[in-house]
Amino acid sequence: TQLLEQSPQFLSIQEGENLTVYCNSSSVFSSLQWYRQEPGEGPVLLVTVVTGGEVKKLKRLTFQFGDARKDSSLHITAAQPGDTGLYLCAGAKGAQKLVFGQGTRLTINP
Amino acid sequence: KAGVTQTPRYLIKTRGQQVTLSCSPISGHRSVSWYQQTPGQGLQFLFEYFSETQRNKGNFPGRFSGRQFSNSRSEMNVSTLELGDSALYLCASSLIGSSGNTIYFGEGSWLTVV
């Protein structure tokens, strides 16, 4: 059972366009993390959100945690080829292990 | 400070063999988690160790095992390798545990079983 559903699974857009990736669940999480993974490398943490409704910005990336702490979104403005990679969301629930979504494979074409 | 270090980075094994992968966490981190990543299944949790004790375990067969040493370094072992065990094995460390705490990944060990 996949507790975290990411959409879309694959996304290919042109440089300069905007995009949003979604991470949804029917479960409530105490915190949610977003990672980016490049080919052949391990995932690198981008941000952690912990409060319902929280919005965090990292340059052109905007992360939002849903009010009910069941979902999150990642919005990228003016995407660049360097944004290409696998984006993973991961949710924490109390003392249980971190749960990962299946990932969104993003390709930004020059 | 140094990140999570995994060795070896790449290895090829034959079906039926066993393999041991090593992970050195970030200095001061006491929790180490292991994940298997494949294109079809994504990131699957294997197990987590904290202070030399296994604290959480995923749904993998008993062929997959691990341990943690007093210096927080961890190893995972896969016995009787199968073709389906080919994957990227990722280790992640955190201060006190993977749940609710930021975890930091190593670059992974690429295992190919032939």
Which class of secondary structure composition applies to the elements of chain B? mainly beta
Strand content of chain A: over 45%
Largest sheet of chain B: 7 strands, mixed
What's the pLDDT, averaged over the residues of chain B? 92
Q: In a few lines, what is going on in this structure?
A:
The complex is a heterodimer of chains A (110) and B (114). With 110 residues, chain A is mainly β.
Characterise this structure.
The complex is a heterodimer of chains A (110) and B (114). In chain A, a hairpin with a 6-residue loop joins strand 4 and strand 5. Chain A has 110 residues and is mainly beta. Chain A is built from no helices and 11 strands. In chain B, strands 2, 4, 5, 6, 9, 10 and 11 form a 7-stranded mixed beta sheet that branches. The radius of gyration of chain B is 13 Å and the shape is globular. The chains are: A mainly beta (110), B mainly beta (114). The interface between A and B is medium-sized, with 24 and 25 residues.
Notable features of this structure?
heterodimer, A: 110 residues, mainly beta, 5-stranded antiparallel β-sheet, globular, B: 114 residues
Chart the SSEs and their pairings.
The complex is a heterodimer of chains A (110) and B (114).
Chain A (H helix, E strand, L loop, with lengths): L4 E3 L2 E5 L4 E6 L6 E7 L6 E6 L5 E4 L2 E5 L5 E6 L8 E8 L6 E2 L3 E6 L1
Parallel strand pairs in A: 2-11
Antiparallel strand pairs in A: 1-3, 3-8, 4-5, 4-9, 6-7, 7-8, 9-10, 9-11
Chain B lengths: L4 E3 L2 E4 L5 E6 L6 E8 L3 E9 L2 E5 L6 E5 L5 E5 L8 E8 L9 E2 L3 E5 L1
Parallel strand pairs in B: 2-11
Antiparallel strand pairs in B: 1-3, 3-8, 4-5, 4-9, 5-6, 7-8, 9-10, 9-11
